[in-house]
Each structure stands twice: as structure tokens, then as C-alpha cells.
């Protein structure tokens, strides 16, 4: 399959969906490649209080349902596939995916982060409460940050018990999120080893890696290419957006804003090329 697009976006989380809507609105022929479920990590966010427009907060799944409804109104080709490599042939990007090659003039990489794992059999990294049956179960969560406490509070609504096992002493989740978990009866064991605590379900929330294996070829060929928000210095037309390039600034509104900014820059780049012809 060979397709031609002004813009191909890899990753259908908040950054990728926002980029796709904005690009399509600008008139760019746009493809959005997602290997799993559209919405990315935001699908499992139990309760979002910092995305503007929802004064009482909103469940991640409901917010993403709105994102998807909005995406469906635009002429974006959503391709259910995994991006496996990226190359540049003259000025055209060749994106190899599990569903075939895609040719595009611009690429936005919005692939988020992949979870780190402890390496224990049966652990589920960043488990989706809606897809992890836990009624009457003893749930153990390893981690001490926002995600660990956020998921603990959600699992505590139906689990028999929820325990957080922290490697160190200091809770790094924000106060409000940690308090919500505590109010729902979540037990916290500091300075502990999760392998020593009994559980029915073990969930790891111990951080994320920002690896983008499918762009390794490009990284090798373009010395100095850094994974930072916006357009790469070289090759031109390659953009990064969202968690993949944001370090600790991992939030839905930032990811969506990055996606829109990258789509706008891709559009302006094509316009400039057209004007120079
Ligand atoms: C439990 C939890 C709670 C959270 N709560 C909040 C909150 O309250 N407020 C807030 O602002 N943020 C919250 N976040 C963070 C927020 O979800 C992320 O910052 C946001 O989803 C990042 O969007 P993104 O599009 O950059 O990446 P992601 O959401 O990670 O999406 C990336 C997408 O790329 C796809 N992908 C990856 N590699 C490939 C490939 N090779 N080919 C094709 N597709 C690929 C993935 O499948 C994924 O769908 C929470 C996160 C978690 C885990």
C-alpha cells in the first residue's frame, strides 16, 4: 500500500489527535497512525481536573470520547498499524508501518512514552482499571508518583484492598491526588519491596522511557537530531509533540497544544514551499 499525504502523524494520543484535527482543518491531507487504541494514556486517567473546559473535571475515557467525536468530523485517514521505521527519500518521508508504507511530506512523532517495568511475572504496567477486573481482589501498586496514587484511588472503589509499595520515603504525587487515595483507604508501605507483599494483581507505575525505536535510522543519519518539541533542525519536516519530548511536563493540554503547534508549522512549511515554486 502506498499512500501520499501532506502530513502523517504517528501516535493517536492527545497530541496526535489534536494535530490531526488542526491539520485537517487547515486543509492538509492527513494520516494518523495508531498501533493500539486512539486516546493513548489519557484513556486510563481516572479523573482529569486540569484540562480546561470541564469545570467539574472529566474521566479520561469521556474526554477521549469527545476527542474522537471531533476527529471523526474531519477528513483524517486513521490507520490502525504500528510504525516500524522512518526513512527519507529525497524530500519525502517513507514511513514503514505494519499495514504498509506511507509517503508523506511531513511527519509528526507523537508516540508518548513506554512504561518501565520491574520485571516481575504478571505485572501490569499502568493498568487500565476498566480493563483489569479487580472486584474483591488485593491490588498492589508499585510507585510513588501521580499515576500510582491516581490509579490506586480508582482501583480502591471496587478492589478488596489496595496497597501502594514505595521504594523510598517521599511521596512524589501531588498532595490532592495522594489525599484522594488515602481517603479511599489505600494503604501505603514506604521503603518496601513489592515482591515481598502478597497480591492478586500487581500494577507497576515506576516511570516511563522516551524511546522511539522507529526513528532510529533518522537519528543515526542526522547527527545532532534531538527529540524536542517542534520541528527538528534536520531533517526538515520532522516534528515531535507531546510526552515523547516533554520530560516531566506530561499533561494532556500540553500534548494537545504541541500537536496543534506542530500541525500549524507543517502547514506553513508546505505553504512556503508552494510560494517558492
Ligand atoms: C494514570 C494516568 C493519569 C493521568 N492523569 C492526567 C491528568 O489528570 N491530567 C493530565 O493532564 N494528564 C494526565 N496524564 C498524562 C496524560 O495522559 C499524558 O500526558 C498524555 O496522554 C500524553 O499524550 P501524548 O499524545 O503525548 O502520548 P500518549 O497518550 O502516550 O499517546 C501516544 C500514542 O502513540 C501510540 N504509539 C506509540 N508508538 C507507536 C508506533 N510505533 N506506531 C503507532 N502508534 C504508536 C501509543 O499506542 C499511544 O496511543 C495521566 C496519565 C496516566 C497514565
3D architecture notes:
- The chain is an alpha/beta fold and 277 residues long.
- The protein folds into two domains: 2-113 and 210-276, FAD/NAD(P)-binding domain (3-Layer(bba) Sandwich), CATH 3.50.50; 116-204, FAD/NAD(P)-binding domain (3-Layer(bba) Sandwich), CATH 3.50.50.
- Helices cover 27% and strands 25% of the residues.
- The protein is built from six helices and 15 strands.
- Strands 1, 2, 3, 4, 5, 6, 14 and 15 form an eight-stranded mixed sheet that branches.
- Helix 1 runs parallel beside helix 6 and helix 3 (146-155) packs parallel to helix 4 (175-183).
- The mean pLDDT is 95.
- Bound molecules: flavin-adenine dinucleotide.
- Flavin-adenine dinucleotide (FAD) is lined by residues 10-16, 33-36, 40-42, 44-45, 48, 50-51, 82-83, 110-113, 126, 147, 150-151, 214, 242-243, 250-253, 255.
Task: For this entry, give a set of tags.
elongated, 6 helices, FAD/NAD(P)-binding domain, 25% strand, 2 domains, 5-stranded parallel β-sheet, alpha/beta, binds flavin-adenine dinucleotide, 277 residues, 8-stranded mixed β-sheet
Amino acid at each position: 500500500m502506498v499512500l501520499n499525504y501532506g502530513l502523517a502523524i504517528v501516535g493517536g494520543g492527545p497530541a496526535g489527535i489534536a494535530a490531526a484535527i488542526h491539520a485537517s482543518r487547515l486543509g492538509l491531507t492527513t494520516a494518523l497512525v495508531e498501533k493500539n487504541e486512539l486516546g493513548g494514556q489519557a484513556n486510563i486517567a481516572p479523573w482529569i481536573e486540569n484540562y480546561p473546559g470541564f469545570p467539574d473535571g472529566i474521566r479520561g475515557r469521556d474526554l477521549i470520547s469527545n476527542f474522537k467525536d471531533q476527529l471523526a468530523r474531519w477528513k483524517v485517514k486513521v490507520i490502525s498499524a504500528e510504525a516500524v521505521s522512518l526513512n527519507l527519500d529525497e524530500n519525502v518521508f517513507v514511513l514503514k508501518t505494519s499495514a504498509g508504507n506511507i509517503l508523506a511530506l511531513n511527519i509528526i512523532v507523537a508516540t508518548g512514552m513506554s512504561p518501565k517495568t520491574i520485571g516481575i511475572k504478571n505485572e501490569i504496567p499502568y493498568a487500565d482499571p476498566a480493563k483489569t477486573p479487580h472486584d474483591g481482589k488485593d491490588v498492589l501498586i508499585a510507585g510513588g508518583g501521580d499515576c500510582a496514587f491516581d490509579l490506586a484511588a480508582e482501583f480502591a472503589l471496587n478492589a478488596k484492598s489496595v496497597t501502594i509499595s514505595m521504594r523510598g520515603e517521599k511521596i512524589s504525587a501531588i498532595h490532592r491526588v495522594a489525599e484522594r487515595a488515602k481517603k479511599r483507604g489505600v494503604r501505603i508501605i514506604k521503603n518496601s519491596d513489592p515482591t515481598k507483599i502478597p497480591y492478586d494483581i500487581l500494577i507497576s507505575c515506576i516511570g516511563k522511557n522516551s524511546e522511539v525505536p522507529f526513528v532510529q535510522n533518522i537519528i543515526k543519519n542526522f547527527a545532532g537530531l534531538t527529540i524536542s518539541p517542534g520541528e527538528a533542525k534536520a531533517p526538515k519536516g520532522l516534528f515531535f509533540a507531546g510526552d515523547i519530548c516533554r520530560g516531566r511536563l506530561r499533561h494532556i493540554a500540553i500534548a494537545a497544544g504541541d500537536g496543534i503547534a506542530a500541525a500549524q508549522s507543517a502547514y506553513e512549511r508546505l505553504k512556503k514551499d508552494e510560494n517558492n515554486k
